[in-house]
Amino acid sequence: MTEQKFLPFALPDIGEDEINEVVDALRSGWVTTGPKTKQFEADFAAFIGDGVEAIAVNSATAGLHLALEAVGIGPGDEVIVPSYTFTATAEVVRYLGAHPVCVDVDAATFNIRPEAIRAAITPKTKAIMPVHFAGLACDMDAIIAIAREHKLKIVEDAAHAMPTYYKGKLIGTLDSDVTVFSFYANKTMTTGEGGMVVSKNKDIIARCKVMRLHGISRDAFDRYTSKTPAWYYEVVAPGYKYNMPDTAAAMGIHQLKKINAFLAKRETLAARYDEALADLPLILPVRPVDAGSNHAWHLYPVRLKPEAGISRDDFIVRMAELGIGCSVHFIPLHRQPVWRDGYGLKREDFPVADAAFEAEVTLPLYTRMTDDDQRRVIAAVREVLGK
Ligand SMILES: Cc1ncc(COP(=O)(O)O)c(C=O)c1O
Questions:
Q1: 242 and 293: one domain?
Q2: 146 alpha carbon to ligand 1 midpoint, in Å?
Q3: Family, per the entry (predicted)?
Q4: Could you give the count of Cα atoms lying within 13 Å of 231 in the half-sphere of its Cβ?
């Protein structure tokens, strides 16, 4: 097995359509935000549906920053985030001079716990950022109810949730204020780097659009295609440089067309893992219990049970020796120096997230995996666990 090619933990699935569209952008002369970005935004909004509008940005991190700014988060505010997430979820809160308040997660889903949100609310709390971990929706009914009761904004970090249904509705259409998707290289669809801000609220969309490009009231494409002089623009706020270029949107247009096929492939891979690993000392990912809910399977996170007799770190080393790349999602925020030391976070205050991290391994799952590739992963897991 070791002489076989190393099987990475994730790989993008880029086809000739994406390549041709990028080449078309390069040949067209529009390499920054232009017609392809407009098309990608329109296509994405149509896919999510329910009257949402979509603003393309150069990362989900940028999109989350814009979203928090647009809902009015500012210095001294508190925003509740799960500890079990990537640092981007919390760092954007700090960009605005506000404070991320980390809370613990659910032991089965790794998603933020509504009761933990409730317990963390103070007079300074302004927003909640649910993260749909691995592609499984948070308990959004409960989170929306808490937000209504306490007049809090909801900015959904949907970096993993494309496409995730929650009780028959796509993430992006729920009663939150804004939802942000990621098209980073390892996500369920990719533009290399990129993200999408989605909302039904026209004021939020308008604010994100202006702040995405320096606070300028008209973007380059509008300026060069409208009748007023192209050189004229007005800066109405100190904005950011977060626009998506057409070279990235070109990829996104075709990735989006394939998203349901990608999902079907991910579901097949996840189902095969579920079956082939069921007898091992592993906790496998849970599936949604509600009708009309699905899992986007961005990640396939497993946890080693104590009886596995091997630490997570050693497991990953052994898998690498067998030619298989694994990863860990996530090193929780309360273990990262910036958040741990900055906010005095203690491991014992996040018992679920902390224990989950100690035991978690993410197995390779991506649409380009062949049956043989997956058999290699399964055989390696069984070998490492002595089965
Ligand atoms: C939960 C979560 N939020 C946000 C991000 C940031 O996404 P991006 O790389 O598009 O900025 C990531 C990236 O991996 C993520 O996992």
A1: no
A2: 25
A3: Belongs to the DegT/DnrJ/EryC1 family.
A4: 0
Q: Output the CA 73–ligand 1 centroid distance in Å.
A: 20
N-terminal to C-terminal alpha carbon distance within the chain: 16
From the CA of 330, give the closest atom in ligand 1.
16
Is there a single domain that holds both residue 283 and residue 177? no
124 catalytic per annotation: no
Instruction: Please check whether residues 160 and 308 belong to one and the same domain.
Output: no
Segment 76-117, tens digit of pLDDT: 999 999 999 999 999 999 999 999 999 999 999 999 999 999
Three-state SS for 42?
helix
Within this chain, do residues 98 and 22 fall inside the same structural domain, yes or no? yes
3 Cα to the center of ligand 1, angstroms: 34
Q: Is residue 9 part of a domain?
A: no
Into how many domains does the chain fold? 2
> From the alpha carbon of 62, which atom of ligand 1 is closest?
11
pLDDT of residue 99: 98
Mean pLDDT value across the chain: 96
CATH number, domain containing residue 274:
3.90.1150.10
Cis peptide before 262 (omega within 30 of 0): no
Cβ(57) – ligand 1 distance below 6 Å: no
User: Over the stretch 148-179, which tens digit does the pLDDT of each residue have?
Assistant: 999 999 999 999 999 999 999 999 999 999 99
CB 330 within 8 A of CB 361: no
Of 126, 153, 169, 187, catalytic: 187
Beta bridge partners of 157: 131, 180
Residue whose C-alpha is closest to residue 86's, from 238, 195, 171 = 195
Ligand 1 center to 88 CA (angstroms): 6
CA-nearest residue, atom 16 of ligand 1: 86
CA gap 112, 180 in Å, rounded: 17
> Does any ligand 1 atom lie closer than 6 A to the CB of residue 156?
no
**Structure-block tokens of residue 66:** 């814009």
